[in-house]
Amino acid sequence: MDWMAERTRVLSEAKRVVVKVGSAVLTGEDGLDLRVVNRLADQLATLHDRGLDIVLVSSGAVAAGRKVLHAEITGLPARQAASAVGQSRLMHAYDEAFARYGKVSAQILLTRDDLRSRSRFLNALNTFRTLLDWKAIPVVNENDTVAVQELKFGDNDSLGSLVVNLVQADLFVNLTSASGVYDANPDKDPEARCLECIENISCLDLDTTCDGKTSVGTGGMYSKLLAARRVAQLGVPTLIVSGRERYVLDRVFSGEPIGTWVVPEAHPISRRKFWLAYNKTPSGSVVVDPGAAKALTTQGKSLLPAGIDSVDGNFGPGALVFIKDESGDTLGVGLSNYDSADLRRITGRRSGDIADILGDCPYPEAIHRDNMLLDAAV
């Protein structure tokens, strides 16, 4: 099936959709643009009436607060304070907009810690399931007012990709200020053209394809494509399309070929591997020798201590770490069976030597293949 036929099929058969909208779409010179909020709610309500489960990941709280405060927002404490002012205004606007169509919206604020803890992840999953069973529309944002830097998602594109996994969505729609993904920066190259489809996003060089961030957001096209690459690994397609065009969602779901369609991978990873790779933050790294790199990437092997050249960082057992080759390229990420101190002691040694060195050998592998994701979009 070609990508256009697959796009048509997904748009007609999708049961659950995550829609992410950015600050550059929602806000104008006077702060939160209520006309945009109302138009978005109108379109989402129409899709909801068709029987789709809708989860909205919405930016805009900090930008909305900035305009109310008329203050310079620099640094994390100021952003958190602006979010505290803007979040209530953002949610009030959604509540009123959805209520016009007889829809109930529900606010969900998340930090990375909520998703990297397996028990809290499952609690969030059950909350989403209940809300969707009640036919409510969850509106998700990062809990900026309490998130410390190391627990932040970084941007709502990343959060959106994690929510796709959390709610097991069939499609990720990313509403942006651009018409889609361009083959060059349209602000600098008048000949740049919008790509209709990205068929193999894992082979796309994001650094050369993307450049620049929007003035009011934190992401830019790089973060949108990184999120799309993660979602593709789940077997879920992404549509990146302009949120500024009128009735864009109505047009998309009516079959109009606008935006950029990102084709998912043919062989998706497990949701568990997605969770361990992207809900945790790597605490260090291990550098492997060429033989181990080949065994990992071509033979699907676990990483043994004998294949490790060096260990960087300080971390405990069960920590997520980067797996790098000798040139410094990242091969993937995985959960270390040992803390960094013990891993350094057994680096380069055979598994049969572990008990003699450490006094015990709970695991023959440094990182088991079941706890590893190669070609991770990090």
Q: Could you describe the 3D structure shown?
A:
Helix content is 40%, strand content 18%. With 378 residues, the protein is of the alpha/beta class. It has 2 domains: 3-269, Carbamate kinase (3-Layer(aba) Sandwich); 282-374, Roll (Archaeosine Trna-guanine Transglycosylase, Chain: A, domain 4). The strands form 3 sheets. An 8-stranded mixed beta sheet has the order 5-6-4-1-7-9-10-8, sandwiched between helices. Strands 12-11-13-14-15 form a 5-stranded mixed beta sheet, sandwiched between helices. Helix 3 (34-49) crosses helix 5, helix 4 (61-69) packs across helix 5 and helix 8 packs parallel to helix 10. The longest helix has 24 residues, at 76-99. The two termini are 30 Å apart.
Concise synopsis of the structure shown:
With 378 residues, the chain is α/β, with parallel strands linked by helices. It has helices spanning 3-13, 23-26, 34-49, 61-69, 76-99, 112-116, 118-133, 156-167, 206-209, 221-233, 248-253, 271-278, 290-299, 340-346, 354-358, and strands at 16-21, 27-28, 31-32, 53-58, 105-110, 137-142, 171-176, 197-198, 238-242, 260-262, 284-288, 308-312, 320-324, 330-335, 372-374.
